[in-house]
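Need tokens for this chain, all 227 residues.
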Amino acid sequence: MDEIKDACILLFVKYPKNGNVKTRLATNLDETVVRELYTNFVQDSLKLIESLHLPFFICFSPKTAYDEMRAWLGKQYHYLPQKGNDLGERMKNSFLQTFAEGFNTVVLLGSDTPDLPVYFIKQAIRALRTNDVALGPSVDGGYYLFGCKKDGFSPTFFEGIHWSTSAVFQETIAVLKRNKKTVHILPEWSDIDTVEDIYAFIKRNKGTSFSRTMNYISNHKNLFEKR
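Here are the structure tokens for all 227 residues:
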């Protein structure tokens, strides 16, 4: 990706506390197991992003957790606090802040797709040479990636969206169409929100140990057997 001189990645991360991350998973799994799973999601996401050799920021929540984030993931990373009352505001403000830093192409990722193919991100960045927005739809109706060029950005992209519902992707597409933006849609992928998503993740990656997440699951097989 050396030809992209003004691109950066934003990784949205929550500081992991019991009961604070992937709460839908906690209906089937112990909160401590969920927290440990999530920490592996994040580590795998960081490994993926680092392989791109592009600048990136860890956008963390809550915004008061700066010291805790550095103690957890390390002082070598650049951290940005998420600012806003809902997910839409936090994403909007993160884009505005990184555009203000001088980046003209910004790609935002969640931290719950630990086996996301790296070429999806590369495809998004390349698509943004000729499109205003790149969008990666999730199987559940949301999206796992939102990329945008500075000169094609509008804060309205994140307004009026019913977050954490199956309508997020379609509502976002409708907003982009109203704004007359060109959109490149990436292949669909599955994030991990439910125990069924865990089973699908295991099936996709059966027989591999490519990631910390898969290693964790393999070392705790009894916790992830289908009930």
